[in-house]
Structures are given as structure tokens and as C-alpha cells.
TrEMBL record:
Signal peptide: none annotated. Residues 336-406 form the PAS domain. Its EC number is 2.7.13.3. This is histidine kinase.
């Protein structure tokens, strides 16, 4: 029997197996018969192979007609089933494929689509060994062979492959998919590769990438923001300017949510505009926006729809042009133009323009306003019709010379104004030249010099009598200099007096306060009581002296009122007669019509001044004579009150000194020398003047010129109390806050107040006093010194304290008010002042006057807690609420608002919905849990501000809002409140 190994190698496996099986079981008969049967079997196999592989592609036909017996694969009939099947799949595939079969010297097979890529290598490459026909492909396969033959499926993306296109080698880019072909379990006969030629796609992608880079480069050089966002409001494109604006790298910015970059509040405003663009609308608007440094700039925003390749809107383009610098230039130009026009008006200038040959064209409003000419009248050379006939020809000649020389035109002529009169003008005009030096137009100004020329004429007239006028002027100046020197001396003394009075009054207050306290400790000891009374009398004398010094120095606080002098003098008649004695006759003015002698004056100080003058007159007449009071008007808006006596008069050499403090002609201890100085200072501080006329041996007249009052006079009762008139010092149980920087004064006044029964708190300065009130201290009256150290002044303390305590009474005290509560010598409106030093009795009565004043008719406005993170909105809303009478606590965070609410217990909460940290609704719920009656107003610019919230009774206030809407919302939030306008605030849950 033949050995199986000696059978022909070309026999297909099934034929070889057929022969082997027959030899093994002995059923072959003889060998020749067996071989004949085998050959028959082989011919049947070859006949079937002749029709393999099926298909009508050129490569299928090529495979069927190829002589495979000469190749390493052998006849088709001898191929392994896996090879035959794979070849059939390859040649009939609709995509480019090739098959590498074998291990040592693999054979290349492929289909028609790959043949197109092979170019000139086809058909020689079909069925040939890969290394002989396609070295680079063989090299690629060699690099992947071990992995492919190990059964690994491989993918090469965008692989560069040299192909032969129309017999010209060309580099191509392909995606290669390698699939191992198994002939038996664990045994791989070859590798099939699917080839996708992506050369054009890669080339197109490179073009797109390059164009995208070019677009990015072009956008990056633009001096404004260029952005594209998709429908999810994520950044998909941003240029370098935009990345720098946000302070975020462009690569990191792409894909980020817009809200995360610009914040919730700004996003809500911009989203509305972006959504409109995504609906197909182009929106242009302006806004003031901050960059990443917080610098706020004015921008012009353009929102436009963005389209994809299919023409569908896939987002929005945003173009943001920074117009801050442009607007500033325009504003500066506007300011410059306004300044120029204002300067023209200030100098009586009329601006005009002319063409190169001197014709007036277009609108010339200033010229028309000056001359009254219509547009048609001044067109062309119509301006010449306004020039005086005698000046017309000289003007034209001077103008022609300036045009020829292309130089400034300067001339003086008369112009008929719109009233028909002639006024003198100086005209100056300059030509505007082009680059070639030719005149483009003229710009000129007519300046009215009529008054200047009149003054020059008057000056010429004056010069003719110059010598006489110089002598007169020298004499006048000498008198003025003497008057000025006298006034300066009095002013210097007054300033010194005011400064001394301040410290002196504080010292007197310490003494007086302690003496008042001591008087209670020594009650029942007559000797000690007498000594304390004498000491208090000394304090009173010192107080009067200080008051006279302040009056002379024009530093005393005045409370002027409109007073009918005739009625006032009538009311003082009895007082004056008691003061001068029965041996002096008093002549009073006759009754007059009501308000005929009205003047604006402090009645208490006027009463003191008249008493001083009456007592001086009494001493000058030595108790016998005639005192006359008379009234008159002058032409300067004053009422003249003259006090005349028939006394000894004043010597001429001393009449200029009698108003100086401490100057007196009386015997020692007969006068302080402050009476007339007090009168002089009081009248001067009131805006009037004092004149003294006297003749030795005949008498003296002191004339007071007092400012007239235009309003109806108020009835005035005499201020001086009868001697010995007094009443018990009233006390009370209210709470008083004492603010005094002088510790000794503060100790004394606190003790006086506590002795009167009051509850007292104290502070050494305004800052600490305000801190006490802000901490929740409730007081009924603020008693504060006017002049104190520290940045916070007493008037500001009073204003801020009243914001926290609307019903608070305020009483100022001072020994020298300066300008803190007094302006132009008068107490500010509504200011209550108790001058130092004061007695226990005067303090007690003054306190009760203020504390017993009736409360305002309207109820106090509730306390509002305002929570708003936008500083401008918060400050504006705070001011509006305070103006409306509300007490306002304000902050920018909910966390801080919780602390304020605990201390101040507000009645109404006005809060934005979106706050940093805790939200507005969360804050409202928390505070409502602690204060069930708390009214709530939600203020927001978002649409969701009107949807039902956690608090159904809260009031919704839409931003932006004005004063009416804000106050209506607060009113509606009060318990039982209703919106005053259905179109303004609405409660949550109500239809918007």
C-alpha cells in the first residue's frame, strides 16, 4: 500500500483524504482503480472550481481565469474553504478591500474598488506576492503581520499610503481595517483589509481647519468682542478680545455656560436678547457692563442668529463693541462746544461762518438772534445790510484785504440789532485753509463792545477833571481805610471774644451745674445756701458777660422772626418806663397800620438791645430828661429805629470807640462797657447797621437800621420776666441721651437730669452716641453739645438718630455754636438750642417744652429692611424710602439681613430674589418664622418674580421700578394693605 506522504501534494484535502481512507480499509481493489477513482474525484473538483469565485466583477473574472497552480496558493480546487469564501467576499465587496494570504511570502488579492486605487499596478499585482509588486504595502503588512497573524483586529486611522492614480504615484490618506482569516481553530491563513480612501475628506478638513484658523486670526485682531453661543447657552467661539474681557483663556472658555462666566443677574438680562436672536431676530442695544477687573464700560451689543450647514438656527452670534472711549470723546466734544457757546454768551460774542469769498450760507442762528434777520435776508452777502451805512464800505475794503492776504480779519463797526438800535462790535475772523493753502471757509466772532466804548468815553471825560477827582478819591480812600481798619479791629476782637466765650461758658456750666447740685446737699443751712446763691449770681453775671461778648463778636445764635416794630415797642413801653425811672419822659411812636414796620429780627435780642440803649440814655441824662423812640424807612430795604436822648452827648474824639468792648465813659463799677458793643454786634449779625449821632451837651441818637420783613408779622410777647418770677423745676421719667465731650460738664448735667427723675444714658462723642442708638437703645430726647471732636458732627448725629427713632426730640447746647447749626448768623430751621451756661431751672423747663410737644398727626411710618446686592439700586431705593418718611436698614446679603432683623425688628422686608448666598425667598421664610406679621416685597427683574412663591401674600415689584411703584409696593405689604394701583405691585399668585 502506498504511503500517504507519497501522495501528490496538489491533491485537494478531500481527495487526499479519500485515497487515504480507501487505502486504510482495503476497499480499493487494486491501486490503479483507486487512483482512477481519485483522479475522477479531482476532475469533478476542478470543474466546480472553474466557476469560483462567483460574481461579475472584473476581479472575480480575473480570479476565475488566473493560473493558480503556478502560485503558492495552488489550484482553486485545492484552496482551503476559508480562503475561497474570503476571496469571494473580497472580489464582490462594494468597498475597496484586499487580501494578503500566506505567512512567508504572502499573495495579494483584491477587488475592483481597490484596483482603482492600485492604478498602474493592476492587474499585475493581482495574485502576485505582495513584496514583488507593492513594496510599501508589503512593508506596512510586515509591520502588522505578527499582530494580525496573532488574531488581533487592527485599525489604522488616516494612514498615508502611496497609490498609483492614472499611472502617477500620489500620496493618499486611508483608514485601514485589518481582519484575521481563520482556516481552523487557532490557525490563521491570512489577513483581509478594508480600505477607505479619506484623502478628500482629510483635505477638506484641513481646508476647514485652516479657514477656521484664519477666521479666528481675523476675529482676534478685531477691537471688540466676537462670540457665538449655542442653543444651550454655551460658548462655541470667542475671539482674543472677548477672552481678555472675561479674563479666561479662550480654550477654557469654549464649552462653558454663559451664566457661569457673567453671573446669574447679568445672564438673565442677556438671555432674553440671545433668545430673541435664536428666534431669528437681530437685536441691537446698549448696556453698561463690567470686565473681569470690575471696570464698567459702555458697550453696543448686537445679537444675531447663527445658522448650521442645513440653514437651521443653531445659536446666536454676539458682537459687543466697546463705545466707552467714543462716547467720552463725543461727550467731551459736547462739553467743549457747550463751554465755547457759553464763553461766547459770556463775552457777548456772536459766532458765524462764511464761505471763502465771504458769503453767509446755511443756518446762522446766533447772527439771526443778534440782528433779527430772517434766513433769506442774511443768505449770500445779506450780512452787509445789518452794518451801519457809514461803516459798510470800510468794512468791505478791510474784508477784501484780509481775503487777499489770507490773514485774520479784524475790524470794528456798528450793527443794527433786532430792536433796531445800533451797537458797536469788534469782529475777528480767521480763514480755514486746505493743504494747498487755499481758503475753505471763514470762522468769525462779533463781540459787543458798546459798553466798553461808552466806558472809554466816560474815562476820557473823567481824565479832563482828573486832578480834582484824584484828591476827592484820596480823601474817600482815607476815610474808607480808617473805616476798614476800625472794622478789622472790631472783627479781630470779635473772633477773640467768641473763642474765649466758648471755653468760658463750658467752665461756667461746670460751676453752675455743681452749684445747683450742691444747693440740694446743703438745704437747711442758711449760711451755706446764701454763699451758693452768691456764687450762682456770679455765674449769672459771667453768663451775661459771655453773652455780650458773643453778641459783639457776632457769634450768638439768632432766631429771627418777622416782627412789627411799632407793636413790639408798644409792648415794651411799661418795661422801659420801669428801667429808666419816672423822671424821664418816654416818647413812643404813634400806632401804625398793621405790618407797616415789619422787620426780620430776633425779638429776644432786640429787647436786650433796647434795654441797653435805654439804660445808657438814662445814665447820660442822669435820671432826668426825654427819651424818644422813632421809626422810619430808608430806600435800601431797612426799617430805621432811632433811640434819642437829651443827655450829655459824646465827645467827637471818642465817638468811634464807644462800640468797642469794655470802653466806657462811666465811673468805675458804673458799667461794663459792653452795652453798645452788644447792640453793635447783634444788629450787624442780623444784617443791619448801627449809626451814632451826638452833640456834646445836646444829646445822642443811636440809629438801628434793621432788615425789613416781607411776610406777615407774628405777635411777640416781652421776653423779660418780672423780677422774682419763677416756678418749680419740672421733671419727668423719659429716657435722655447726653452727648458731651467735656467730662466735667457731662458729669454735672447727668446728675442734674437724674435729680429731675429722668433716665439718662451718656456718650463722650457723636460716633459713640450713634453706635448706642444703632444697637437698639430707645431714647426720647437727644441732648447734645454742638462742637465736639470726631468726624461725625452733631447735626449729622441728629439726622441719623431720627432715621432710627422717628419721634426723637433733639436739644442742642453750646457756649459757641460756630457754623454747625447756624448759618448767616441764624439758627437753622427746626433747631432747638439751650445756650451755655444754663441753670437747672432753664434746663428743666426747656426739656419739658420739647417732650410735651404734641406728636405729629400722621402715624410713624414702619421700619423697612432693604436687601439688594446691586449697590446703585440699593442706595437709590434707600433714599426714596427715607424721603417718604420710612426708617430704613439696608444691606447686600441675606446673612447680614438676619442680624439686622434681630436687632431692629423691621415691619416690612423688601428683598431681591436672587442674592449671593441665601436667596430672597429663603430669607423671607426665615424672618417670617420669627416675625409672623412681617410684610414682604420681592423685587426682581426676572419673569419668575411673578410666579407663586413660598409666601402667597408677598408683594411682587418688577424691576426697573420708580418711586411710585416702590412706595405702592411697601404700602401694599403692610398688614391689611392693598396695592394702590393694580398696574403696579401685585401679590404672588395673582394674575400678572
Amino acid at each position: 500500500m502506498p504511503e500517504p506522504a507519497r501522495l501528490p501534494a496538489y491533491l485537494p484535502a478531500d481527495v487526499a483524504q479519500f485515497v487515504t481512507d480507501r487505502l486504510a480499509d482495503g476497499s480499493y481493489g487494486d491501486l490503479d482503480s483507486l487512483l482512477a477513482a481519485a483522479l475522477k474525484r479531482l476532475r469533478e473538483t476542478e470543474t466546480a472550481a472553474a466557476a469560483w469565485p462567483p460574481g461579475d466583477s472584473s476581479c472575480a473574472a480575473l480570479a476565475r481565469g488566473h493560473d493558480w497552480s503556478a502560485s503558492a496558493l495552488g489550484p482553486i480546487g485545492c484552496w482551503p474553504p476559508a480562503l475561497g469564501t474570503t476571496v469571494s467576499n473580497v472580489v464582490n465587496s462594494p468597498v475597496a478591500k484586499f487580501l494578503v494570504w500566506g505567512v512567508d511570502d504572502p499573495v495579494l488579492l483584491y477587488n475592483d474598488f481597490f484596483a482603482a486605487l492600485a492604478g498602474g499596478r493592476h492587474p499585475a499585482a493581482f495574485g502576485a506576492t505582495i513584496g514583488t509588486v507593492w513594496p510599501e504595502l508589503a512593508e506596512l503588512f510586515a509591520g502588522l503581520r505578527e499582530r494580525s497573524l496573532a488574531g488581533e483586529a487592527l485599525l489604522l486611522r488616516e494612514h498615508a499610503l502611496m497609490l498609483d492614480r492614472e499611472r502617477a504615484p500620489e500620496g493618499s490618506v486611508c483608514d485601514l481595517f485589518f481582519t484575521p482569516i481563520y482556516t481552523a481553530p487557532g490557525r490563521i491563513g491570512g489577513v483581509m483589509c478594508t480600505v477607505l480612501d479619506i484623502t478628500e475628506r482629510v483635505r477638506a478638513q484641513k481646508i476647514l481647519t485652516r479657514r477656521g484658523a484664519e477666521l479666528q486670526a481675523m476675529a482676534d485682531v478685531l477691537p471688540y468682542l466676537v462670540i457665538r453661543v449655542d442653543r444651550t447657552h454655551r460658548y462655541r467661539f470667542v475671539n482674543a478680545y472677548g477672552a481678555a474681557w472675561y479674563g479666561i483663556d479662550a480654550d477654557r472658555l469654549i464649552g462653558m455656560q454663559v451664566e457661569d462666566v457673567i453671573g446669574k443677574t447679568a445672564f438673565k438680562e442677556r438671555r432674553v436678547l440671545a433668545d430673541r436672536a435664536m428666534a431669528g431676530e437681530t437685536v441691537v442695544t446698549r448696556a453698561v457692563l463690567p470686565d473681569h477687573t470690575g471696570r464698567r464700560r459702555r458697550l453696543e451689543l448686537h445679537f444675531m442668529p447663527s445658522y448650521d450647514e442645513a440653514g437651521r438656527i443653531d445659536g446666536a452670534h454676539v458682537l459687543a463693541v466697546d463705545i466707552e472711549d467714543t462716547l467720552r470723546v463725543l461727550e467731551e466734544e459736547h462739553r467743549d462746544n457747550t463751554r465755547f457757546r457759553t464763553a461766547m454768551r459770556a463775552m457777548h460774542g456772536v459766532l458765524w461762518t462764511n464761505t471763502a469769498d465771504g458769503r453767509m450760507l446755511g443756518e446762522q442762528p446766533a447772527w439771526a438772534q443778534l440782528t433779527g434777520q430772517s434766513f433769506e435776508q442774511y443768505q449770500g452777502y445779506g450780512w452787509a445790510d445789518a452794518v451801519h451805512p457809514d461803516d459798510a464800505q470800510p468794512t468791505i475794503e478791510a474784508w477784501e484785504r484780509a481775503v487777499t492776504a489770507r490773514s485774520m480779519f479784524v475790524f470794528e463797526h456798528r450793527i443794527r440789532d433786532h430792536r433796531g438800535g445800533w451797537r458797536t462790535f469788534l469782529v475777528r475772523s480767521l480763514p480755514i485753509l486746505d493743504d494747498a493753502g487755499a481758503i475753505v471757509e471763514w470762522v468769525g466772532v462779533h463781540t459787543d463792545i458798546t459798553e466798553q466804548r461808552r466806558a472809554e468815553a466816560a474815562l476820557r471825560e473823567v481824565n479832563e477833571t482828573l486832578e480834582a477827582r484824584v484828591l476827592t478819591e484820596i480823601e474817600r480812600r482815607r476815610g474808607a481805610e480808617a473805616t476798614l481798619a476800625h472794622a478789622q479791629r472790631l472783627e479781630t476782637i470779635g473772633q477773640l471774644s467768641g473763642g474765649v466765650a466758648h471755653d468760658f461758658n463750658n467752665l461756667l456750666q461746670v460751676i453752675a451745674g455743681n452749684l445747683e447740685l450742691l444747693s440740694h446737699d446743703i438745704a437747711g443751712n442758711p449760711r451755706a445756701e446764701r454763699r451758693v446763691a452768691n456764687a450762682l449770681a456770679g455765674v449769672a453775671r459771667g453768663s451775661r458777660l459771655s453773652a455780650q461778648l458773643l453778641a459783639f463778636g457776632r457769634r450768638q445764635p439768632l432766631a429771627p422772626r418777622v416782627v412789627d416794630l411799632a407793636a413790639f415797642l408798644s409792648g415794651m413801653d411799661e418795661m422801659l418806663r420801669r428801667a429808666v425811672g419816672a423822671d424821664i419822659e418816654i416818647d413812643m411812636p404813634a400806632p401804625a397800620n398793621a405790618n407797616q414796620w415789619n422787620c426780620l429780627i430776633d425779638p429776644a435780642q432786640l429787647e436786650n438791645a433796647l434795654l441797653n440803649l435805654a439804660l445808657n440814655a438814662r445814665d447820660a441824662m442822669e435820671g432826668h430828661g426825654r427819651l424818644k423812640l422813632s421809626l422810619d424807612h430808608d430806600g435800601d430795604g431797612f426799617v430805621r429805629l432811632a433811640v434819642s436822648d437829651t443827655g450829655s452827648g459824646i465827645a467827637p474824639e471818642i465817638i468811634d470807640k464807644v462800640c468797642e468792648p469794655f470802653f466806657t465813659t462811666k465811673a468805675e463799677r458804673k458799667g461794663s462797657g459792653l452795652g453798645l458793643s452788644m447792640v453793635y454786634g447783634f444788629v450787624t449779625q442780623s444784617g443791619g447797621r448801627v449809626q451814632i449821632f451826638s452833640e456834646p451837651g445836646l444829646g445822642t441818637t443811636v440809629q438801628l437800621s434793621l432788615p425789613r420783613g416781607a411776610e406777615i408779622a407774628e405777635p411777640v410777647e416781652p421776653v423779660q420776666r418780672p423780677a422774682g418770677a419763677s416756678s418749680p423745676s419740672p421733671g419727668g421719667s423719659e429716657h435722655i441721651l447726653v452727648v458731651e465731650d467735656d467730662e466735667q460738664v457731662r458729669i454735672a448735667v447727668v446728675a442734674l437730669l437724674e435729680g429731675l427723675g429722668y433716665r439718662v444714658s451718656e456718650a463722650p462723642d457723636a460716633g459713640r452716641a450713634l453706635a448706642l442708638i444703632e444697637s437698639g437703645l430707645r431714647v426720647d430726647l437727644l441732648f447734645t453739645d454742638v462742637v465736639m471732636p470726631g468726624s461725625l458732627k452733631s447735626p449729622e448725629l441728629a439726622r441719623l438718630a431720627r432715621q432710627h427713632l422717628p419721634g426723637l426730640r433733639v436739644l442742642f447746647t453750646s457756649g459757641y455754636t460756630a457754623d454747625a447749626i447756624m448759618h448767616d448768623g441764624r439758627l437753622d430751621a427746626g433747631v432747638e438750642l439751650l445756650s451755655k451756661p444754663y441753670t437747672r431751672d432753664s434746663l428743666a423747663h426747656r426739656l419739658r417744652e420739647l417732650l410735651d410737644m404734641p406728636k405729629p398727626d400722621r402715624p410713624a411710618q414702619p421700619r423697612v429692611l432693604l436687601v439688594e446686592d446691586d449697590e446703585l439700586i440699593r442706595l437709590n431705593a434707600t433714599e426714596l424710602l427715607i424721603e417718604a418718611g420710612y426708617v430704613v436698614d439696608q444691606t447686600d446679603t441675606a446673612e447680614h439681613a438676619i442680624g439686622l432683623a434681630a436687632a431692629a425688628r423691621p415691619d416690612i422686608l423688601v428683598t431681591d430674589i436672587n442674592l449671593p448666598g441665601l436667596s430672597g425667598p429663603d430669607l423671607a421664610r426665615r424672618l417670617r418664622g420669627e416675625h409672623a406679621s412681617l410684610g414682604v416685597v420681592f423685587a426682581s427683574g426676572a419673569v419668575e418674580a411673578r410666579q407663586p412663591g413660598a409666601l402667597a401674600d408677598a408683594v411682587a415689584l418688577s424691576k426697573p421700578y420708580g418711586r411710585s411703584a416702590l412706595l405702592a409696593a411697601v404700602q401694599a405689604a403692610r398688614p391689611g394693605g392693598k396695592a394702590v394701583d393694580a398696574g403696579l405691585p401685585q401679590r404672588f399668585g395673582e394674575p400678572a
